[in-house]
């Protein structure tokens, strides 16, 4: 008679699906968070958390309250999926491929920190530092979920020693996160429209006489330009020095997402901060970060020692 509880094999099959679904939902939450910011709904529920204007359900005629409340509800949904992912990881990977379990536990801790920062941001009237930390933690949570999902299914195609391409991929991934954080700083400091044209800033390349906000804005643009150069190098090096079609095409898609991000960023400025372009800008930036994280994971696996790879393969076969 078949047991009603799932077998270890079933749990291993389901885990990457649930982990990657939770990662995609987290990406959706990041975009939704951008909608909250660009519509100035961050204090839609006032300074109250978890209540909204003293109630569980916000007032029906308060659109900003509903945007903020739905954002919180979305976070609760991800929390439920995260609990399911953690339970599956503990049951399926506590005795095998412990890296998957470690990544999932890290994601659970980051979710708890993310929720706490969200409450602090609301209670303290959206201080720029905590707004930036809130978004940064969301990106790390997204990365941890991708790490858990990819580690559970990816089998190294070949082994090679870490080289300059490896370092370039890691640095580019880190740079993409820095750019996201500088973008949050632009929004949090009220510098979104400090420069009303593009690519110049009110007619200047370096707006030294336009105040702090203009300098923050242009620092973000300069960082974005640096990421573009790094991504072009990654694509060139991946197609030149890597035999993996997956790595090659992931790099190409990351570059496409970056170009979309840069273009949408320009539209965001030229449209006087239209909400749709602001949300799309953050979404494309998060997608670029996610693709670079996946590339970094694959590169890390491919550069492990052969004996480590063999032990991983043995674990997968049991």
Task: Please summarize what this structure is.
This protein is mostly helical and 318 residues long. It has helices spanning 8-38, 63-93, 98-123, 128-153, 164-188, 212-241, 245-270, 275-302, 306-316.
Question: What would you say this structure looks like, in words?
Answer:
With 318 residues, the chain is mostly helical. It has nine helices and no strands. The chain has helices at residues 8-38, 63-93, 98-123, 128-153, 164-188, 212-241, 245-270, 275-302, 306-316. The chain is flat. The model has no long low-confidence stretch (mean pLDDT 85).
As residue ranges, the low-confidence spans are none
Strand proportion, as a percent range, falls in under 5%
Distance between the termini: 23 Å
Helical content band: over 70%
**Treating each run of at least 4 consecutive H or I residues as one helix, how many helices?**
9
Q: Into how many domains do the coordinates divide?
A: 2
Order of helix and strand elements from N to C terminus: HHHHHHHHH
Rg result: 21 Å
Count of DSSP E strands?
Answer: 0
The SS-based structural class is mainly alpha
Largest sheet: none
- The shape, in one word, is flat
Provide the residue-averaged pLDDT: 85
What order do the helices and strands come in, and which of them pair?
Blueprint: H1 8-38, H2 63-93, H3 98-123, H4 128-153, H5 164-188, H6 212-241, H7 245-270, H8 275-302, H9 306-316
Helix pairs in contact: 1-2, 1-4, 1-8, 2-3, 3-4, 4-5, 4-8, 5-6, 5-8, 6-7, 7-8
